[in-house]
């Protein structure tokens, strides 16, 4: 089946390997939407004819489910067209998040169909109707299942190729369609062997599947729209890439914004030696921003944080302080360690990164006092100024 998918992609998507291109992504989305319209419309017509002929609530309801799917495919094409619009004054990072909104709308559509299916099936249980078995109708319904399987696997395939939330959401919806269609077809077969009114009960079971899929999809997409943490693999690759450049010895205050699939904006602080020429460091930072940004498809902004790497005394003190505070549960790291003053009464300044869930705001004063006591135990003449940070990934 993969060979068929690749054939369709090569046939209808120009420059199909350049998946970072927004125009190529739009072509993938249009292809997925058109295949969805063709298959769902075919099954829709088939089920309406059979459902009305047999007076089956399960088959008729699934027909309207496929009508929703066909309309969703239209929305997919429309959303990719909108998402491909270039950035403008009002939206400087483009319209890529429309894909997430489309996926969320899919979840809403699934929930509407699920509730309607649940209501209709419950009424059919209360007022059962005998469904006659028809061999031709059964064979037609059976032939529709491979079409749904093809649509599910194809949509999921191209969704993974371009990492599209909208297409992955559509694939999840089509997987539900496979379950629905299989159970409806099975219920039609059962009517040949029993007079039990299974039509309504099968409808109830299928509607629960639909509702569960809609809730899970909606929860995931709503989290993305609100602003969920980026993938850990992406974060680690970005950090290690920055540190690989000459003179950069640490990274912190990393913030990543997602403006749609393949559209990231990231800012971070890079620790660099204070005794190196600013112009030389600027050239290195500028090179890192451009090279990493192009390779990882991210708009990257790096702020330089100079640190003293020449003083063995400061380096040793930093190691001692970190060894003592890292045992406190909830402290992840320490950065921007500076020492101000040349007399015995020095002031130590540093930032402490806290776990997102370990400390409430009301507990930070107590934590600050605890760390200050640690500094005092190292040398009573030292003052300390501590800033608490958190990770945004």
TrEMBL record:
It comes from the Bacteria. The chain crosses the membrane at residues 35-57, 95-115, 135-154, 200-218. Pfam families: Cation_efflux, ZT_dimer. Signal peptide: none annotated. It is found in: Membrane. Residues 35-222 form the Cation efflux protein transmembrane domain. Keywords: Membrane, Transmembrane, Transmembrane helix, Transport. Gene3D superfamilies: Cation efflux protein transmembrane domain, Cation efflux protein, cytoplasmic domain. Its main location: membrane. It is a multi-pass membrane protein. Residues 230-306 form the Cation efflux protein cytoplasmic domain. GO terms for cellular component: membrane. The keyword NAD does not apply. GO terms for molecular function: monoatomic cation transmembrane transporter activity. Belongs to the cation diffusion facilitator (CDF) transporter (TC 2.A.4) family. This is Cation transporter. It comes from Clostridium beijerinckii (Clostridium MP).
């Amino acid at each position: 089946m993969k060979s068929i998918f690749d054939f369709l992609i090569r046939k209808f998507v120009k420059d199909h390997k350049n998946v970072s291109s927004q125009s190529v992504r739009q072509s993938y989305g249009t292809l997925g939407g058109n295949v969805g319209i063709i298959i769902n419309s075919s099954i829709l017509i088939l089920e309406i004819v059979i459902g009305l002929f047999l007076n089956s609530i399960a088959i008729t309801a699934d027909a309207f489910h496929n009508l929703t799917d066909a309309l969703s495919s239209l929305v997919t094409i429309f959303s990719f067209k909108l998402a491909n619009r270039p950035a403008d004054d009002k939206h400087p990072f483009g319209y890529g998040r429309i894909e997430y909104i489309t996926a969320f709308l899919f979840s809403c559509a699934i929930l509407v169909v699920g509730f309607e299916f649940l209501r209709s099936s419950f009424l059919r249980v209360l007022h059962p109707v005998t469904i006659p078995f028809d061999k031709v109708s059964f064979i037609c319904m059976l032939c529709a299942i491979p079409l749904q399987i093809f649509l599910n696997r194809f949509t999921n395939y191209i969704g993974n190729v371009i990492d599209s939330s909208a297409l992955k959401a559509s694939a999840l919806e089509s997987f539900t369609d496979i379950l629905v269609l299989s159970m409806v077809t099975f219920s039609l077969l059962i009517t040949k062997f029993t007079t039990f009114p299974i039509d309504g009960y099968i409808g109830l079971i299928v509607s629960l599947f639909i509702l569960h899929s809609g809730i899970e999809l909606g929860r995931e997409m709503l989290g993305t729209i609100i602003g969920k943490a980026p993938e850990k693999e992406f974060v680690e690759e970005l950090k290690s890439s920055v540190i690989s450049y000459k003179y950069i010895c640490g990274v912190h205050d990393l913030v990543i914004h997602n403006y749609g699939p393949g559209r990231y904006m990231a800012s971070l602080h890079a620790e660099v030696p204070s005794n190196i020429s600013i112009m030389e460091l600027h050239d290195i930072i500028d090179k890192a921003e451009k090279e990493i940004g192009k390779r990882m498809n991210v708009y990257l902004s790096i702020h330089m944080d100079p640190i003293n790497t020449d003083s063995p005394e400061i380096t040793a003190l930093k190691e001692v302080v970190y060894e003592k505070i890292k045992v406190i549960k909830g402290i992840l790291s320490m950065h921007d360690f500076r020492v101000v003053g040349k007399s015995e009464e020095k002031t130590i300044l540093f930032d402490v990164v806290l776990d997102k869930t370990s400390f409430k705001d009301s507990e930070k004063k107590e934590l600050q006092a605890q760390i200050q006591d640690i500094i005092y135990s190292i040398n009573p003449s030292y003052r300390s100024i501590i800033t608490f940070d958190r990770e945004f990934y």
